[in-house]
Design brief:
single chain; about 120 residues; mainly beta; Metal Binding Protein, Guanine Nucleotide Exchange Factor, Chain A; 6-stranded antiparallel beta sheet; 9 strands; about 5% helix; globular; binds zinc ion
């Protein structure tokens, strides 16, 4: 028996408990990160302020490439909303120095691309 192609192709969307503070996609409102996963607020994205996140949900990774950022040459991949495909920021794949290694496998969410929902 082969697996049902319709269930395999379906993006595995996550629905989080509604009482947790989250970040949502500005375009479609899909939950994309728990505010608890916020690592640092002091980052700058392409459009201004950005958050460094330990994890995200409901996101896809786009093209991976090398980018020259303020802090050196990084390998990053675009972070895309799994529902509407809008660009939310990027994921750090590889950083140039040991001091910056903590950013690897973490995610930048551009503040302008997300909505902060407190749910209280
Ligand atoms: Zn979206």
């Amino acid at each position: 028996m082969s697996p049902d192609p319709t269930t395999c192709a379906r993006q595995d969307l996550h629905y989080l408990p509604s009482d947790l503070p989250v970040f949502s996609c500005k375009e479609c409102g899909l939950v994309i990160a728990l505010q608890d996963e916020l690592c640092s607020k002091g980052f700058t994205g392409g459009s201004g302020k950005a958050f460094l996140m330990n994890s995200t949900v409901n996101t896809n990774l786009g093209k991976q490439d090398e980018r020259r950022l303020l802090t050196g040459k990084h390998t990053c991949a675009d972070l895309l909303c799994a529902s509407c495909g809008s660009s939310l920021g990027w994921k750090y794949i590889k950083t140039p120095t040991a001091e910056q290694k903590y950013k690897e496998n973490r995610f930048i969410l551009e503040q302008a691309k997300v909505v902060k929902e407190n749910n209280w």
